[in-house]
Design a protein that fits this description.
Helix content is about 35%, strand content about 15%. By secondary structure, it is of the alpha+beta class. The structure holds zinc ion. The site of zinc ion has 8 residues, from loops.
Length: about 325
């Protein structure tokens, strides 16, 4: 109980200390972790703020009043990752969502409300996940193999969340975005598109996963057979899977509501084409490479990002743990 109280006090302190940030995107800063509970012997209970300027795209995809707070994951919370089959993409993505949901908190400084981390943009998932990994395994950054095209030197480069590079939206796109929803005003139609979040993505993924699983195990009776039958066809419709993430307007819709909306749009050729265009262009995921600096000649290189398998993401290499090193190092 006192531990919880301590956490709440830390959060309250942080909340009052956080001020409104500028909306102008600032250059990507080096990661700085400032434990709020700095009298604790380690960072396990420490909360830290993720400054708005550190956020991907300078935080423009979040309301200005939102402040991001994170805590270090606990050993049991990350232990689950080592149990995953690397091919179990859905299981892994669920675990990533769960970790982000537990360890990241958002405060709306205008309303003083706590906002669930499921409202984080879906395309920032990797960023927040890396942040949590960095604070948990502070001395084991992900190492990228890099090669200099100028002097052909091979070198290793650390990958931090803050090194990830994200595309910026155009000014026109920013001008129709209210912090959560794009208000497109096309000549023929007005379209509202809620930015894809962990929540909207889970709404879609859960149903698709249920349908695919029931197809794979046809003999397994499930209690929601009717729902599964109803959505089986649409879950195999590749165009639906492409457009569905941008069909949310409030971000709280159910799968059924999205499916109905899709069917309605599908009947209007012009509207359907507009949605298709938006779906094909509304992508803000990080690039697949990061900029690294050659140790030997200082040249800047684009280096491809390669993550360890997720089941090894939180495993300290034997040589990285001072106690196990004796036996496994
Ligand atoms: Zn070089």
């Amino acid at each position: 109980m006192s531990k919880d109280k301590e956490k709440l006090e830390a959060l309250a302190a942080m909340e009052s200390a956080t001020t409104h940030q500028s909306e102008v995107p600032t250059p990507i800063a080096k990661p700085t972790y400032e434990p709020i509970v700095d009298n604790s012997p380690n960072t396990i209970d420490g909360y830290f703020t993720i400054d708005r300027s550190e956020l991907p795209q300078g935080g423009i995809f979040y309301p200005e009043s939102w402040a991001f707070v994170a805590r270090c994951p606990e050993a049991e919370e990350v232990a689950i990752f080592s149990t995953f089959n690397p091919r179990d993409q859905i299981g892994i993505m669920k675990a990533v969502d769960e970790l982000i949901r537990k360890c990241i908190t958002i405060y709306d400084q205008d309303t003083e409300n706590k906002i669930s981390a499921i409202n984080i943009c879906d395309f920032h998932k990797i960023y927040f996940f890396l942040k949590l990994r960095e604070v948990y395994l502070s001395n084991n950054p992900i190492l990228l193999d890099a090669m200099c095209s100028t002097c052909h030197n091979e070198y290793k480069s650390n990958l931090f969340a803050n090194n990830l590079q994200f595309p910026y939206p155009s000014d026109n796109l920013i001008s129709i975005f209210d912090g959560r929803v794009f208000h497109f005003d096309f000549e023929t139609h007005k379209i509202k598109v809620h930015i894809p979040t962990l929540k909207t993505s889970a709404t879609l993924l859960n149903m698709v996963n249920r349908v695919y699983t029931s197809k794979a195990n046809p003999n397994q009776k499930t209690s929601n057979d009717k729902q599964l039958q109803r959505f089986t066809k649409i879950c195999y419709d590749k165009i639906f899977l492409l457009i569905a993430p941008i069909l949310f307007e409030t971000g709280d819709e159910s799968f059924a509501e999205i499916a109905v909306k899709y069917e309605r749009i599908h009947k209007d050729k012009e509207l359907f084409e507009l949605y298709l265009e938006v779906a094909n262009n509304l992508h803000f995921e990080n690039y697949e490479s990061v900029e690294t600096t050659c140790e030997s000649c200082g040249a800047l290189e684009d280096t491809e990002i390669r993550f360890p398998d997720y089941n090894k993401m939180f495993t300290k290499s034997a040589s990285g743990n001072k106690f196990t090193k004796k036996y496994f190092g």
